[in-house]
Write a structure and sequence with these properties.
Elements lengths: L15 E6 L16 H15 L6 E5 L8 H11 L6 E4 L6 H7 L13 E6 L2 E5 L14 H13 L5 E4 L19 H10 L5 E6 L6 E5 L2 E5 L6 E2 L17 E2 L4 E7 L4 E7 L14 H9 L3
Parallel strand pairs: 1-2, 2-3, 5-6, 6-7, 7-9
Antiparallel strand pairs: 1-12, 4-5, 8-9, 10-11, 12-13
Length: 300
């Protein structure tokens, strides 16, 4: 088993915060007229919010499609922005990435048997994070072969009572975004379902890939998809005919979004924040202190 050391950098009383960014797609377009490419700028803004906002995480997971072409230059740009992060960074591989270049940019990730980039992290407060590798080179959709299934089964069996969070790039569900979805009974999905069925210690599965916020269940386990840092996939749940271009919206400039998964030792709660300019309409000042105090009084 490959283990990545990830002692939380900012343990706070009563909870661990796990940030998740996904689908950054650095390198989608070149810099133009001296301006940084859009996707890298969106990543920079999202990272700035994590570093300077009120909810600095204990860990950051990058759940795949860190780059758009898997090239060394794009991975190097991403790693450079993350170099001074005061918390551990856990990268996963997506279908746009390259395992070899990810390892070069993030040498803390050590390939397991078979070359897969899957590993386990002890996140704090008793929570394990299992990071899965769902890449099949040359394929847009996910993959989860027998070797990876056996690895995951072993990891779950070695700590059957430990609360566990699984993070992976590809969602093993049909969400209704027709051009992005897998077929319902793809072998890799069936294989993953067989491993996870009855695994009550798994608190949740969190994914990327679809560029939209989605919640559902898989094998009886809550499953969430975190929206992308790169531009989002348009919200259109109508079937698509691959042979008939119908001028539908595909990609939009909705703001970059990230997730914060909060584990308090008993419950895992996920929050999502868009990164954009907004006005603050209220602050905790003396005028609002009676309202806040009254809300706390209701808990007593």
């Amino acid at each position: 088993m490959t283990m990545v050391a990830a002692t939380p950098a900012f343990p706070r009383l009563g909870a661990v915060l796990i940030a998740q960014m996904t689908d950054i797609h650095v390198g989608f377009a070149p810099d133009e007229d001296g301006r940084e490419e859009l996707n890298l700028s969106r990543f920079r803004a999202t990272l700035k919010r994590l570093l300077e906002g009120p909810n600095r995480p204990d860990l950051l997971v990058l759940s795949g499609d860190i780059t758009d072409h898997g090239d060394a230059a794009s991975f190097a740009k991403t790693a450079a922005l993350l170099a001074d992060c005061p918390f551990p960074v856990l990268p996963l591989v997506g279908n746009h990435d390259s395992r070899e270049e990810l390892i070069r940019a993030f040498p803390q990730v050590v390939p397991a048997e078979g070359g897969f980039l899957h590993y386990v992290v002890e996140a704090g407060m008793g929570l394990r994070i299992i990071c899965l590798d769902t890449l099949e080179d040359g394929r847009h959709g996910g993959a989860f072969c027998e070797a990876r299934a056996a690895w995951l089964a072993d990891r779950l069996a070695e700590a059957p009572d430990a609360p566990t969070l699984i993070i992976m790039h590809h969602p093993p569900v049909v969400a209704g975004i027709d051009w992005m979805d897998p077929a319902p009974q793809e072998p890799w999905i069936v294989r993953l379902h067989e491993v996870l069925e009855g695994q009550s210690q798994v608190q949740a599965i969190h994914c990327g890939h679809l560029h939209r916020q989605i919640t559902t269940r898989f094998a009886g386990i809550p499953l969430g998809v975190t929206p992308s840092v790169a531009p989002l996939v348009a919200m259109d749940l109508n079937p698509i005919d691959k042979d008939v271009p119908d001028n539908r919206e595909l990609i939009t400039t909705e703001p970059p979004t990230y997730a914060l998964h909060r584990w308090d030792g008993e419950s895992l709660v996920s929050h999502y924040e868009r990164v954009s300019d907004w006005d603050v309409l209220a602050r905790f000042n003396a005028g609002l202190q009676p309202m806040i105090a009254g809300m706390f009084a209701e808990r007593e």
